[in-house]
Amino acid sequence: MKLTIITPDKLAYEGDVTAVTVPGSAGSFQILKDHAAIVSTLDDGKVIIKDISGEHVIIIKGGVVEVKDNNIIVLAEGIVQE
């Protein structure tokens, strides 16, 4: 699967992933290969990215996620710097 995380000012992440967990407005949910097409709003929280090198966490400030044909696009309002 291909994941892209975009904020208004930069491309925050782009790469191949095996799983992604996002902070949906109705609760966190995980996206795996061949997930049904979906568009969902996101709350502030952790985007947990799993790829061949391990697990990465990006904390976002709300946004929207779109999943279609194993392409995941997260349009985040911002990224929290740690």
From TrEMBL:
Q: Which UniProt keywords are given for this protein, alphabetically ordered? A: ATP synthesis, CF(1), Ion transport, Membrane, Transport
Q: Which organism is it from?
A: Sphingobacterium yanglingense
List cellular component terms (GO): endomembrane system; proton-transporting ATP synthase complex
Task: Report if keyword Membrane is assigned.
Answer: yes
Could you tell me the membrane topology recorded for this protein?
Peripheral membrane protein
The record ties this protein, via SUPFAM superfamilies, to: Epsilon subunit of F1F0-ATP synthase N-terminal domain
What terms describe the molecular function in GO for this protein? proton-transporting ATP synthase activity, rotational mechanism
Quaternary structure per UniProt?
A: F-type ATPases have 2 components, CF(1) - the catalytic core - and CF(0) - the membrane proton channel. CF(1) has five subunits: alpha(3), beta(3), gamma(1), delta(1), epsilon(1). CF(0) has three main subunits: a, b and c.
Q: What are the subcellular locations of this protein?
A: Endomembrane system
Family membership, please give it.
Answer: Belongs to the ATPase epsilon chain family.
Q: Which domain of life is it from?
A: Bacteria
* Primary localization class, coarse: membrane
Main role? Answer: Produces ATP from ADP in the presence of a proton gradient across the membrane.
Report what the protein is called. ATP synthase F1 subcomplex epsilon subunit
